[in-house]
Amino acid sequence: MSSDEQHRFIADAMNAGSPQARALGLVTLEIGDAVAILKAPYRPEIVGDPETGVIAGGVVTTLLDHASGQAVHAALAEWTSIATLDLRIDYMRPAQPGRDVLARAHCYKVTRSVAFVRAVAYEDDPDDPIAAAQAAFMLDSSAGKKPGANLKPPRAKASGGQGDAV
Amino acid sequence: MTDAATRLSAVLGSIPYARFIGMHAELAGDEMTAILPFSDHIVGNPLLPAIHGGVLGAFMEMTALAQLSVAEPLKRQPRTIDVSIEYLRSGRPLTTFARAQIKKVGRRIANVHVEAWQEQRAAPIAALRGHFLLTSADE
């Protein structure tokens, strides 16, 4: 599989395999070269303010997080598990009512343990953004974790009551 | 129902996306706890499985909006200016709780901190800090 095909495969798997992405109907329009462009189709159920019909800020959060994650995968030669460490979002203006929202994410730096991403959400033009995001992702975040790891209770707690740090 | 409780159910009932992810909130006096029951469609990573980070962010953002509406009557829903989300632990397939603290309410801007946890209050899974615009009628 070429790296382009691999990135497309991971993006499609992330959209189809993640129940929340599926519930929102997220689609990857473009993927490759550390950049991902995703679409969240407009639906009445995901509105945040019924007075205006504007899509919820939370949907934009999920879209930006998801797009950023795909941009990280598109910056890596091999698949590795990733987890969002932090995500900062500036909301510049409300989304236009009744319109699909797009997100363009660029993973501009990868270190051994962390990947850094910038992303914007928009309808037509990335230079006229609804919101802008800056995110950091931990790489190989599931190291040593087997599938289903979260179904088990956290490892034996210290007396301080700390759970398992990820 | 107290005024605050009426405002709380009005604000959460009016956000379709809050219903979409299945969140609700309870008031004990003036203290509000937001509750996000686990359901399959909020999963982001199906292998672990883990709740989608975006859903946790949205849950905490709407917790902040709800807390603002509980604190005082507002003409309109506040607008989010910015949020900064820290992910501390993976969201396991369990009920998630969140509480918000309003750090400052100015004439136009409110600063709110939110923490989300599952089994242990002392081991939060995520935190959010945000600024919200308390819209005046002219905007």
Tag the structure with descriptive keywords.
heterodimer, A: 166 residues, alpha+beta, six-stranded antiparallel β-sheet, B: 139 residues, two-stranded antiparallel sheet, 3 helices, globular
Task: Please give a quick description of this structure.
Chain A is α+β, with helices and mostly antiparallel strands. Helices cover 23% and strands 33% of the residues of chain A. The longest helix of chain A is centred in the middle third of the chain and has 17 residues, at 57-73.
Overview of the molecule:
The complex is a heterodimer of chains A (166) and B (139). In chain A, a hairpin with a 4-residue loop joins strand 3 and strand 4. Chain A has 166 residues and is an alpha+beta fold. A six-stranded antiparallel beta sheet of chain A has the order 1-2-6-7-8-5, with helices on one face. A two-stranded antiparallel ribbon of chain A has the order 3-4. Helix content of chain A is 23%, strand content 33%. In chain B, the strands form two sheets. Chain B has a six-stranded antiparallel beta sheet with strand order 1-2-6-7-8-5. Chain B has a two-stranded antiparallel ribbon with strand order 3-4. The termini of chain B are far apart. The model of chain B has no long low-confidence stretch (mean pLDDT 91). The interface between A and B is large, with 51 and 48 residues. Strand 5 of chain A pairs antiparallel with strand 5 of chain B, so a sheet runs across the interface.
